[in-house]
Amino acid sequence: MTTTPQISEMEQEQLIEKLEIFKIHGRDKRGRKILRIIGKFFPARFLSLDVLNKYLEEKIFPRLGRKPFAVLYVHTGVQRSENFPGISALRAIYDAIPVNVRDNLQEVYFLHPGLQSRLFLATCGRFLFSGGLYGKLRYISRVDYLWEHVRRNEIEMPEFVYDHDDDLEYRPMMDYGQESDHARVYAGATAVDSSVSSFSMRCIS
C-alpha cells in the first residue's frame, strides 16, 4: 500500500466509493448484517492508510451499529502486485478498528481463498491478528457453498466471481495452486480501470 499516493485525499475517497470495495448489505443465515469486501477492487497502489482508515471510521463502522455482524471477503482475482495492501498495512488497518467493532465481528466468510492465502493465514494469522480473528475465519471455496451461510437473494456479486467458480469446476487444480487462472481470466487487467469495467453485477434470486 502506497505511502505517497498519486492522487489527492478527496480523489482517494471518491475511488473507494466508486469501486464499492466496502458495502454493507444483506444478512447471513443467523440474521447478522454483512460487510462485503471485494479484494480485486482494492486499489492498493493509489490509497494511503490514513485515507482508508478515515473512510472506514466515518462511512462504514457507524453503519454497522452495535450489533453482531459478519464480513464477506471476496478474494477472487486478487494479485499481490495490484491489489494486495501488504502485511504491515493489513495489521495497521486491523489495529485501527475500534474495539467494540472487533468484538461485534462474529464471522469472516473468505470466498475463493486459494492455497497461498490458506498457507499464509495458517502460519501467520494467529500472530498477525489479535482478538481471535483467525478463529472466526470460514473458508468458502465455491459460491454455491456460500449460500449455506448467507441469504442468497440479498447478496450481489461481480460477474467475474461466478466466472472463477466455473473455472474451478473444470480446472480443480487451481484450488491447490497447481494451475494459474491469471492468463485466461485476468489477462491484460489493470489495477483500477479493468476492475470497474468488469463489474457486471448479478443478484441471484
Protein architecture, described:
There is one protein chain. The protein is of the alpha/beta class. It has one domain: Phosphatidylinositol Transfer Protein Sec14p, CATH 3.40.525. The chain is 42% helix and 17% strand. The chain contains 10 helices and 7 strands. The strands form 2 sheets. The chain has a 5-stranded mixed beta sheet. Helix 2 links the parallel strand 2 (33-38) and strand 3. The model is unreliable at 176-205 (pLDDT under 50).
Key traits:
alpha/beta; single chain; 10 helices; 205 residues; Phosphatidylinositol Transfer Protein Sec14p; disordered C terminus; five-stranded mixed sheet
Structure annotation, total helices: 10
CATH superfamily: CRAL-TRIO lipid binding domain
**Main sheet, how many strands, which sense, barrel?**
5 strands, mixed
- Main sheet: strand order: 1-2-3-4-5
Low-pLDDT residue spans: 176-205
Mean pLDDT: 79
Succession of helices and strands: HEEHEHHHEHEHEHHHE
Helix content: 40-55%
CATH top level is: Alpha Beta
Class per helix and strand makeup:
alpha/beta
Measured between the Cα atoms of the first and last residue, the distance is 37 Å
Beta percentage is 15-25%
Gross morphology is globular
- C-alpha Rg (nearest Å): 16 Å
CATH topological fold name = Phosphatidylinositol Transfer Protein Sec14p
Give the number of DSSP strands.
Answer: 7
CATH architecture: 3-Layer(aba) Sandwich
Count structural domains. Answer: 1
InterPro entries: CRAL-TRIO_dom, CRAL-TRIO_dom_sf
Domain CRAL-TRIO: 15-164
Pfam families: CRAL_TRIO_2
Protein name: CRAL-TRIO domain-containing protein
